[in-house]
Write a structure and sequence with these properties.
The complex is a heterodimer of chains A (about 500) and B (about 525). In chain A, helix 4 packs antiparallel against helix 11 and helix 6 runs antiparallel to helix 11. Chain A has a domain of about 200 residues. In chain A, strand 1 and strand 2 form a beta hairpin. Chain A is mostly helical. A two-stranded antiparallel sheet of chain A has the order 1-2. Chain A starts with a helix and ends in a 9-residue tail after the last helix. Chain B has about 525 residues and is mainly α. Chain B has a domain of about 240 residues. In chain B, about 70% of the residues lie in helices and about 0% in strands. Chain B has 22 helices and two strands. The longest helix of chain B has about 30 residues. Chain B is globular. The two termini of chain B are about 35 Å apart. Classes of the chains: A mainly alpha (about 500), B mainly alpha (about 525). The interface between A and B is large, with 41 and 39 residues. Chain A: Its EC number is 7.1.1.-. Chain A: It catalyses: a quinone + NADH + 5 H(+)(in) = a quinol + NAD(+) + 4 H(+)(out). Chain A: Keywords: Cell membrane, Membrane, NAD, Quinone, Translocase, Transmembrane, Transmembrane helix, Transport.
């Protein structure tokens, strides 16, 4: 017991910051008179997330290490993905600070601190070295998310979203836990590294494959990839916009963190049945490839018919999850690199888009894409920024989206034989996605306006938009900025324990 | 040396300055927008003249560090380094000069564009940067980057400033070209992933030098190379366009504002030809041989299909659109010939068609502006009211049909000469298209200038009083006025260039010779 208390707790500094801020805000929300605005709480939460980000960045040069009996790992992977998660969280909290829905429900303190708790879950997940920490942090993220989805208490859609999210999420968790029980049963340990080592000695390929598939199903729910994507559009549409932004960005990033930590660590070296594949993970490659292809196709085709901006972005995020899954399916040396890159870029361009949608929803009370028509005429800069985010989502060169997509493409074709079919599907779905992204651009720039001009962008939203726009442009034109980070993370050479 | 960067990005200065001009100050916008296209023109002409005097273009090469994708221990230091690289040779230079000239002329012709002029010029200049960049890039990633700049700029230019069906045309353009680009991107990704470089010269080295083959990060089999070349050719066939992929071209020609079509028909289509030559023949010469027959066949199909459909059109823009399809077929024929004359001819035809189609669309723009229609059925007898205009139109038609002494002849003649050497039967069939060209271009133009309108009820004859019926459509502005000074200048320049290339093709052939020679060595013949 002694060594637990003598652990190097400073390694958890970012987590402590977020946890302390969340509890402080919770207490303040209770203590403050109900007449006081809760808006400053959200600003405080955003500042805490930013502070945690700085703390994480300060730890980048440190050697990777683990504490608490290897349940908490601080390797390059943890630092890198924590940075992305925290950036997404801080930006989403800026959206929370400016949340002013038309239906007039008062600003709620829990919005800020529940999001911090969810963020904490996502951070812990990136650092987990044990099935238990992984599961607990996943639950922390999920349960907080269910509450976030239902925060528009008077809106039926929001209640529906929360209920759907709880039920679907609950099922996913149960399935995943079932899968974990197989893994534990086969190895007798919950430590990820220990599991990986012991599995090399076992000879239960079928049992193991079953465990893999159960875990994959659980993760697929989190990622909103086909065939477990159905909940996403409804939840995204019903939830308040800042929460939608959080789900689309932070939860998705956390889902991929889970995918890598859980499936890659455990199964990368596990024995497999059959002739060629040297590991269970590689033998499952065809399954993941098919899922990635279907996710890309269904996400981008269904997005064509959406009129609600939130639903549109929900399907677009499904399509993007497909691209990411394709990057995973490639299983090349570029895998973690390209996923990190894509998730970073995805965070920037999505939060930017959601910030502008939040403004439109605040002002008009609806998220129909008509709200965008003729935006260029009275808010040219805002329209230009949104245009940039959309081009980036579409993967047009000169924006960060292109660089990220190119990296996934390279990963897909670098192995021999390459995943040419998947690359072709990705190329074609990208072109399909042009239709709906450019449709929004048409609305922005070509159409005359019918609605009343939008007001000025409030400070929080404009901070988020400016930050995201600069990031999108900077990575688009000087991708070295992001790749230097990857080099500093050592291209995640120490990922496997 | 920053010469090429300066050349490519000099329109940026105009973009920045334009930002500060008030939206309503149209004269200033027109002036500034046109002036912004002059620096690249001067630089391009300077480079052209200097290279004619024996200046070695390689000395203009530029390289700057941009990004390193990974530094895994088993890779060499140069692997997966993508640099910002520009570099030109005679082939690119010819296209750069064409781009710079046509951009200035299109900017001059843009005085007929009246709505939202500021945005229009911003995107026109962005389009110019994209086009100049495409021809200057010495690296696949940057080539693609510039290519997509043209894609976005064209989408906005067509979709916002085009005719009635503009959005449809813009989408059509976007999707066809997007698919072409996506295919190209996959090919680029494969090449980059397997060789670790995107630089053209290094790629060439990696693919052909047996000693360098060991440095490949993953093998590229012979079959794989054939697939890569097939992908490349298909991608550029969409951009050219070759026949089954030509629908977007028709829509864009008809709907886009005429000055934009000047650049579209004049330069953008040529990216297809440039890409096939630079990457098809340049990187995969051995595999290219096996595709030559298919290319020539598609060329002949293009020539005949375009010409036959052009015959049946009664709308001047559509006639010209199908004639573009037909003329781009000649480029394919030249490439399919697989000999020096053929390749030379393909390039000459590209340049010639660039000049001629620009002249045609300059005139179409004036016609649409004056008459409110380009429907041949409703036009007639323009010689009386617009003698100068009719003269230019006739010149354009003569150039289009390939009259000796004008630019069109040089390209067609050389291309067919090439094909007759290697595939005489195919060439003989294709040559029929040239006869059709004479019929459709003369028929259309003579009907407008000398003929009578067929559709009398809605006729817009060239009388000096504006017709009442014409006022209802698009309102011809003022009475029928002949070509005026400002409009005549670009027309005159284009005619002068067309004649110059026609009479003295050596002007263009000289910088090309060395490049074509190298390529022929690669092709092994």
């Amino acid at each position: 017991m002694n060594d637990v208390w003598q652990s190097d707790w400073s390694m958890m500094a970012p987590e402590w910051i977020v946890l302390a801020a969340a509890i402080t805000l919770l207490v303040m929300d209770l203590a403050l008179p109900s007449s006081r605005s809760r808006r400053p709480l959200a600003w405080g939460a955003a500042a805490a997330a930013a502070l945690a980000m700085i703390a994480t960045a300060a730890m980048i040069p440190a050697e990777s290490a683990s504490i608490l009996h290897d349940t908490f790992r601080l390797d390059a992977f943890a630092k890198a993905f924590k940075l992305v998660v925290l950036a997404g969280g801080a930006l989403a909290l800026l959206l929370v600070a400016e949340w002013a829905p038309k239906e007039g429900s008062p600003h709620r303190g829990e919005f800020a601190y529940m999001m911090l708790f969810a963020l904490l879950g996502a951070m812990m997940m990136a650092s987990s070295g044990d099935l238990l920490t992984l599961f607990v942090s996943l639950e922390l993220l999920s349960v907080s998310s269910y509450i976030l989805a239902g925060l528009r208490k008077t809106a039926p859609a929001s209640n529906e979203a929360a209920l759907k999210y709880v039920i679907n999420g609950g099922i996913a968790t149960a399935i995943m836990l079932f899968g974990m029980s197989y893994v534990f049963g086969l190895t007798g340990t919950t430590n990820l590294g220990g599991i990986a080592r012991r599995l090399q000695e076992t000879n239960e390929p079928y049992m193991l494959a079953l465990a893999f598939l159960l875990l994959l199903i659980g993760v697929s729910f989190k990622l909103a990839t086909v065939p477990f994507h159905m909940w996403a559009p409804d939840v995204y549409e019903g939830a308040p916009v800042p929460a939608t932004a959080f789900f689309a960005v932070v939860s998705k990033t956390a889902g991929f963190v889970l995918l890598l930590r859980l499936l890659v660590t455990i199964f990368a070296a596990a024995p497999a049945e059959g002739r060629d594949p040297s590991s269970l993970l590689l033998s499952m490659q065809p399954v993941i490839t098919v899922l990635a292809g279907l996710t890309m196709i269904i996400g981008s085709v269904v997005a064509l018919r959406q009129r609600s901006l939130k639903r549109l972005l929900a399907y677009s995020s499904i399509a993007h999850a497909g691209y990411l899954l394709a990057g995973f399916a490639a299983m090349s040396w570029a895998m973690i690199d390209s996923l990190w890159m894509y998730l970073l870029v995805y965070t920037l361009m999505n939060i930017g888009t959601f910030a502008i949608i939040a403004h439109i929803v605040n002002e008009t009370g609806s998220d129909d894409l008509d709200g965008l028509t003729g935006l260029y005429r009275h808010r040219p800069l805002l329209a230009a920024a949104l245009g940039l985010f959309l081009l980036s989502l579409a993967g047009i060169p000169g924006t960060a989206g292109f660089i990220a997509k190119l990296h996934i493409f390279i990963g897909l074709v670098v192995t021999e034989p390459g995943h040419y079919v998947l690359a072709a599907v990705m190329a074609i779905t990208t072109v399909i996605s042009y239709v709906y992204y450019f449709n929004l651009i048409v609305q922005l720039f070509f159409r005359p306006t019918f609605t009343a001009p939008l007001g000025r962008l409030p400070a929080g939203l404009s901070t988020a938009v400016i930050f995201c726009a600069l990031g999108t442009l900077a990575i688009g034109w000087a991708p070295g900025l992001a790749y230097d980070m990857l080099a500093r993370f050592g291209h995640f050479g120490d990922f496997l324990p | 040396m920053m010469f090429l960067s300066l050349l490519v990005f000099s329109p940026l200065l105009g973009i920045v300055l334009l930002m500060f001009v008030r939206k309503t100050d149209e004269r200033m916008i027109q002036w500034l927008g046109t002036a912004a296209t002059v620096p690249p023109l001067i630089l391009a002409l300077f480079a052209f003249v200097q290279s004619g005097r024996g200046f070695r273009l390689e000395r203009l090469d530029e390289a700057r560090d941009w990004v390193r994708l990974t530094d895994l221990p088993f890779l060499t230091d140069a692997a997966y380094v993508i640099r910002y690289e520009l570099g030109i040779d005679g082939l690119s230079l010819v296209f750069i000069v064409l781009t710079a000239v046509l951009a200035t002329l299109a900017a001059l012709a843009s005085m007929l564009v009246k709505t939202e002029k500021k945005g229009y010029f911003l995107w026109l200049l962005a389009l110019e940067i994209g086009m100049l960049g495409v021809f200057s890039a010495a690296n696949f990633v940057w080539f693609f980057l510039f290519l997509e700049v043209t894609l976005v700029a064209m989408f906005l230019l067509v979709g916002k400033w085009g005719g009635l069906e503009r959005e449809r045309a813009a989408y059509s353009y976007l999707l066809y070209n997007g698919l072409g680009s996506a295919l190209l991107l996959v090919v680029i990704a494969v090449l980059l992933a397997r060789t670790g470089t995107a630089n053209f010269a290094l790629l060439h080295e990696m693919l052909h030098n047996p000693a360098a083959e060991g440095q490949l990060i993953a093998p590229l089999t012979a079959e794989g190379r054939r697939w890569l070349l097939g992908g490349l050719l298909l991608a550029f066939a969409v951009k050219l366009p070759a026949v089954p992929f030509h629908r977007w071209l028709i829509r864009v020609h008809v709907e886009a504002p005429p000055p934009v079509v000047m650049l579209h028909a004049g330069v953008l289509l040529k990216i297809g030809a440039y890409g096939m030559i630079r990457f098809g023949i340049g990187l995969f010469p051995d595999e290219f041989r096996s595709f030559a027959g298919v290319l020539a066949l598609f060329g002949v199909i293009n020539v005949l299909y375009g010409a036959l459909l052009a015959l049946r059109q009664r709308e001047l823009k559509r006639v010209l659109a199908y004639s573009s399809v037909s003329h781009m077929g000649v480029v394919l024929i030249g490439l399919g010939a697989l000999n020096e004359a053929g390749i030379q001819g393909a390039v000459l035809q590209s340049i010639a068609h660039g000049l001629i189609s620009s002249l045609s669309f300059l005139l179409v723009g004036v016609l649409a502006h004056r008459m409110g229609t380009t429907d041949i059925n409703r036009l007639g007898g323009l010689t009386k009211a617009m003698p100068l205009f009719s003269g230019y139109l006739l010149t354009a038609a003569l150039a289009l049909l390939g009259l000796p002494g004008l630019a069109g002849f040089v390209g067609e003649f050389t291309s067919f000469l090439g094909l007759f050497q290697t595939k005489p039967a195919l060439a003989a069939v294709g040559a029929l298209g040239l006869i059709f060209a004479a019929v459709y271009s003369l028929k259309a133009v003579l009907d407008i200038t000398f003929g009578r309108p067929r559709d009398r009820r809605e006729a817009v004859v060239g009388s000096r009083e504006p017709q009442a019926s014409a006022a209802s459509l698009g309102e011809p502005q003022g009475g029928v006025v002949d070509l005026q000074g400002k409009e005549a200048v670009p027309a005159f320049i284009l005619v002068a260039l067309i004649v110059a290339v026609g009479v003295y093709p050596q002007l263009l052939a000289a910088p090309l010779t060395a490049v074509v020679k190298t390529m022929m060595n690669g092709l092994g013949g």
